[in-house]
Amino acid sequence: GSTIGIIGAGQLGRMLGVAAAQLGYRIHVFAPASGPACDVNNAFTAAAYDDEAALAEFAKSVDVVTYEFENIDAAPIARLVELVPVRPSAKALAIAQNRIEEKTFVENLGGRAAPWRAVNSREELDAAIAEIGCPAILKTVRFGYDGKGQARLASTGDADAAWDAIGGNPAILEGFVTFDHEFSIVLARGQDGAHVSYPPPLNGHEDGILARSTVPAPAEVASQWTEAAALAGRVADALDYVGVLTLEFFAGKDGPIFNEMAPRVHNSGHWTIEGAVTSQFENHIRAICGLPLGSTAVTGTRVEMENLIGEQARRWSDIIAEPEAHLHLYGKAEIRPGRKMGHVTRVWR
Ligand code: ATP
Ligand code: MG
Ligand code: MG
Question: Relative to the CA of 190, which of 73, 165, 175, 289 has its CA 20 to 30 Å away?
Fold first, then answer.
């Protein structure tokens, strides 16, 4: 059997590992010794993400490499690509790591994003505010997740605080979109170019962190499904993408507004483990291993995934007693505020 290399030792890698094992593959996880989030089969190569010597060792031990974590520098990935197939491609990773590149890429394929401007200095922030207006959101170009690396501006007077909050890093200013609903398209594309996508969940955020995803989504979202999925398909095709790709959207009054993309399985796709015939994790493994993709049909009349964040994880003993609940705990050693400790998926048949 083949061995799949996974870069990153968070919950996404852990769930990818479970899906890989079910299909008979071995997995080897690459993560920095300083802090694997989850205990994934104790299979770690101790290193920093940019430790090229360790990455070369890792490459020798696997047949294909994928990643669950996209905040890796381009240089070590470029080195890895010379040694072993990396799926999805380094190009897809590079684009999705950078808010300017991803918005430009998606806009060039006909997608619509909130108005945005690159901001590289305090003066450029003033110029961007003058053009876009407030309310607005300042986001670091790279390395943001779970709402980290962002600052909201209610009015011009918030500019100093916002610039300080993101540490003066290269950023973009985005106009604040008024929307009632957020959703995502989770799409898998195989090596033969075939793609499948899941019905879009309604995604609810609290404090910038995904709180829950519900399927089916309300009509306001369902009516935007076709357009959003077609855009995701064009993005995947343009990148000759292999694996699962996620695009986040706001359901705007005049159609889907693209927010950002992730070159990987996504928190808003966790419901597919029990709520779809083939999970996002299995379809990602199938894609990177050259297998045909599986059905994305929903298994229940209603599915809801709820994240267990921080102290919410302590509710696990009540949740496990619910008949329709599927509990997932990520095996993180320490509860911290805002940390994703697990999730629960409820499927109503
Ligand atoms: P993730 O963990 O999804 O990678 P992130 O830190 O990259 O999150 P975003 O997805 O850009 O952050 O933003 C987090 C949330 O903040 C969004 O899901 C949305 O609820 C809100 N948000 C972001 N940008 C805008 C915007 N331009 N207008 C209105 N709300 C926004
Ligand atoms: Mg993001
Ligand atoms: Mg997001």
Answer: 73
